[in-house]
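Weekly puzzle thread! Below is a chain. First person to post its structure in token form gets bragging rights.
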Amino acid sequence: MRERSSRVNPVNPSEEVFTQLHIGLDDVDATVGGCTTHATYLLLKELLSKFRTDFQLIDYPNLVRLNPAVPYKTRGNGAVVIRSVVRKDIINEVIRETTEFVSKYVNSLGFRPGTEPGIAAVIGVVPESLRKLYLKALTDYVPRNYLMSLIKETTKNTEVILPYGLSRGVTGALAGIGWPEGVDCTYELLAYRKELSSCRPRCVDPESIKEMDQLFREETFLNYDYLSRRELITPHGPDPVLLGIRGEDPATLINAYSTLRVCEEVSGYAIFRTNQGTDAHHVLRDAGRIRPYQTGCIKASVASKPKNLMGGTSVIELGSGGRLYAAFFKEAGLSKVVNSLLPGDLVMVCGTCHLWEGLGRVIHAEKLVIESLINYKLMNPRCPKCGARMKSAGRGKGWKCPKCGYRAKDLEKEKVPIKRSVDVGTYLPPESSFKHLMKPLRRYGKEKKCSYVRPAEGWIK
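Winning reply:
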């Protein structure tokens, strides 16, 4: 990756005086409140105000979602990255300001068992080793010894600063920094509540959300689920996020936000560049080798008829050479489609791998792609004499007609055409069941290769 400061920085500072500084934050939230994006929003306002032209963003702040299947994940399992060029002589001051701010923010949330905020700073161009860490943290579990080995490798040629040491949040912070250019991306405008600790429902007029969705449906997504009649831009927890509008470009998000009728006081908003809605975690994997906590897509034939478990979950076995199943939960709304599958159908199942007692490896399905359907079933041959269906005469003994007694050894099973109640295609759950990384149908065909881009005017208020 080549140096980009001359392309993305408005004042084209010299490389002798300025350098890139990438700061990653993770786990700066709690079940009782707080949000890593909110902390970043407030932090950026301070840094931009204090350091002015000595600290300039080379990209929108990045909201990088990571593997949703790993244990010990944060609430949204998302890291935030600030990408900037700064004067070399103020790097330590910027990092110190960041660390002090995060500490104050975390302390304001009170005691938070099981969470460990992380800060990571990388000075200069992001090394390839962190690109590898991003891919692993996106699609797999990152053991501590792997992280330590990677940090050791990275620091041979790159200066990395970890103000909190090897806290659990450092994995996400460094992985977020490693999110590469040249891959698909989306944007999200996040607006924040004035009453940050309020447990009152968000006050955004539902009709205005539907109106906004109709006006900007070509360039935004996951605004409103018309099946469940549920607003998707407003979260329901105690965090400070009022709403989030997801879309293809920042200008559209600002316009879309201006059409909403918000009936509570707003402290401000910021736009983030994200990997949300991209299916970035759906890497193609070998069915025989996928492990628990990994994400991915498995192409295989259906090996058995679907089974329906208590609670409305449908399970199919995949012909992988090893025992592998795919589970479709009731909330996915795909039971009718799954129950129409037959052994021999070719499918691709995407999701996260888990270990079930009694079954072993099970893919918690997020997406089903039916690639081909068998259009016949094999039936015993008909008797050449009377036309009745024959029966097996025993292993290696051929066929015997149960009606007239005729025997034959050279007959083959008959292919009988069948009608199918399901079609080839891509099947997704209702939008209200979507997780952050899942790509909705509205985004298909809109994938793009993204690079660092200097934030346009009005991106933060």
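Puzzle host: Confirmed. Bonus trivia for everyone else. The mean pLDDT is 92.
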